[in-house]
């Protein structure tokens, strides 16, 4: 009897426990659809909101100035493919900032500590009497534009050459048996006088030597072996992102050049949207004019000025020189054409048989920005990942969905005509039959990375071929492992890598060969 009761109770307990387990299982199974209905769609919705919010935020931050007029008051992207391209670009930008920012800060601190502990290289100067300790190596915040242009940049940093490395760049001594280098007097620049084609000028006002033999401007100064070559570094004024480039970000670049025995100058350049191409060119002209006038005080040779630029800064430096050369060459041709026209119209006894050369409309409309500032002779240009053809670069950025967040098109001009007028390759190609090659610098060094996704390698290759068409001495070097920013970060003190030695050797050889 007791056994029967025990068995019945056990069976009831098993039934109860089975019922409880079944209830719990059904409760869990009933919650699974709830998770599927709420959690998974919420996760997908959050991802979609993030995917759309980040491109919207990027456009709100970077693309509202000079937005297309047909887009209305608010310019936002709605194409899924454009959103994907912007997400990739923003991710790369954030990754670079996260990696480089801490390293940059630590490098600055470590470099400052090392310089603090370094013995002054000038034994005759008491570091206490000379002022702050860093004044032994550089002068910061020197004004190069006076009076200042409203809203424009006006300061630069000068890094003095360090004598411990001067032996790496040998120079001719006064007792050297080698003949001194004779400067080319036609390498200076001057604005030719305007001439009214309607005036009845006599042919004697247009002697032949006026366009073929007369020196252009004042003669160049004799090179002084006690003074060091000067490298003016122009950062990439077309850098994308909310962090705008400033001269203090490239102080390590100036310091590395100073270690090689050069006087380095890093100026602030007006960037978009504060200014556009006209302001940038005026800043470069003012910087080079200041360097030619004042750099001797810092130990630099005003007759050996080299312009070094990165990205759109390389384009800006070479464009400033090319604009000056093209305009003066055009004026020279116009003066010749006027002389031919007056001779053929019978206002002179001796008729010229040669015909005037045709000047393209684009070249005829070209003007010098900052004409009141005389551009000094430039010995050579060092171009790091340069932009040469602006129109093709805008198209390249459009393929990456970045043309609206990049300042390239808007800083050079919203219209295609203005972009072509501000494109280095276009003005050189249009004036290929007019340019006086004697007005150009002696040579150019182009350094480009094959892994450059922002400025393709063909930009540097095409520019090299274009310059060689002017009988211009061009050295082109490409590096398989370097990207767009690697070319300049490898030229920063504290960021040296295996590629740094190759880059510095190319720069040293280029400067020595031009000397």
UniProtKB/TrEMBL annotation:
Q: Where is the BD-FAE-like domain?
A: 224-318
| One Pfam family linked to the record | BD-FAE
A single MF term (Gene Ontology):
arylformamidase activity
The family database entries (InterPro entries) matched by this protein are listed as: AB_hydrolase_fold, BD-FAE-like_dom, GDXG_lipolytic_enzyme
Top-rank lineage group of the source organism: Eukaryota
- Region (Disordered) residue ranges read 164-194
Q: Does the keyword Oxidoreductase apply?
A: no
- What residue ranges are annotated as transmembrane? 30-63, 84-105
- Low complexity bias located where? 168-188
Which UniProt keywords are given for this protein, alphabetically ordered? Hydrolase, Membrane, Transmembrane, Transmembrane helix
**Stated name of the protein:** BD-FAE-like domain-containing protein
């Amino acid at each position: 009897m007791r056994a029967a009761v025990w068995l019945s109770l056990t069976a009831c307990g098993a039934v109860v426990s089975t019922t409880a387990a079944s209830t719990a299982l059904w409760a869990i199974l009933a919650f699974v659809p709830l998770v599927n209905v709420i959690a998974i769609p919420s996760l997908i919705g959050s991802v979609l909101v993030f995917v759309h919010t980040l491109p919207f935020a990027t456009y709100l931050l970077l693309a509202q100035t000079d937005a297309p007029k047909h887009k209305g008051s608010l310019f936002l992207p709605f194409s899924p493919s454009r959103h994907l391209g912007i997400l990739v670009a923003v991710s790369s930008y954030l990754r670079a900032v996260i990696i480089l920012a801490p390293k940059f800060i630590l490098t600055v601190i470590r470099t400052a500590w090392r310089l603090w502990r370094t013995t002054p290289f000038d034994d005759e100067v008491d570091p206490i009497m000379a002022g702050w300790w860093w004044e032994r190596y550089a002068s910061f915040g020197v004004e190069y534009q006076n009076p200042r242009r409203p809203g424009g940049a006006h300061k630069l940093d000068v890094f003095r050459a360090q004598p411990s490395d001067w032996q790496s760049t040998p120079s001719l001594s006064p007792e050297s048996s080698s003949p001194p280098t004779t400067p080319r007097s036609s390498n200076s620049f001057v604005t030719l006088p305007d001439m009214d084609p309607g005036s009845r000028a006599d042919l004697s006002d247009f002697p032949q030597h006026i366009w073929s033999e007369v020196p252009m401007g004042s003669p160049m100064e004799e090179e002084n072996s006690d003074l060091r070559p000067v490298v003016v570094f122009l950062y990439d004024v077309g850098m994308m992102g909310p962090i705008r480039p400033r001269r203090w970000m490239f102080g390590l670049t100036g310091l590395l050049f100073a270690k090689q025995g050069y006087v380095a100058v890093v100026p602030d350049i007006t960037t978009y949207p504060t200014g556009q191409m006209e302001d940038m060119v005026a800043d470069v002209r003012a910087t080079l004019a200041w360097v030619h006038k004042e750099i001797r005080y810092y130990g630099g040779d005003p007759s050996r000025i080299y312009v070094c630029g990165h990205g759109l800064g390389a384009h800006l430096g070479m464009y400033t020189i090319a604009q000056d050369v093209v305009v003066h060459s055009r004026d020279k041709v116009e003066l010749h054409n006027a002389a031919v026209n007056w001779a053929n119209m019978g206002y002179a006894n001796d008729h010229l048989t040669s015909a005037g050369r045709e000047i393209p409309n684009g070249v005829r409309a070209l003007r010098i920005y900052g004409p009141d500032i005389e551009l000094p002779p430039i010995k050579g240009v060092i171009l790091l990942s340069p932009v040469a053809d602006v129109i093709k670069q805008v198209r390249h950025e459009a393929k990456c969905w970045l043309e609206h967040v990049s300042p390239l098109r808007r800083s050079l001009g919203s219209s295609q005509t203005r972009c072509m007028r501000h494109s280095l390759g276009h003005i050189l190609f249009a004036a290929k039959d007019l340019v006086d090659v004697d007005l150009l610098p002696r040579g150019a060094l182009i350094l480009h990375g094959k892994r450059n996704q922002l400025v393709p390698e063909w930009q540097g290759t095409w520019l090299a071929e274009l310059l060689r068409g002017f009988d211009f001495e061009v050295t082109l070097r490409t590096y398989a492992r370097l990207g767009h920013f690697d070319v300049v970060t490898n030229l920063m003190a504290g960021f040296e890598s295996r590629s740094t030695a190759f880059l510095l050797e190319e720069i040293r050889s280029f400067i020595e060969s031009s000397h």
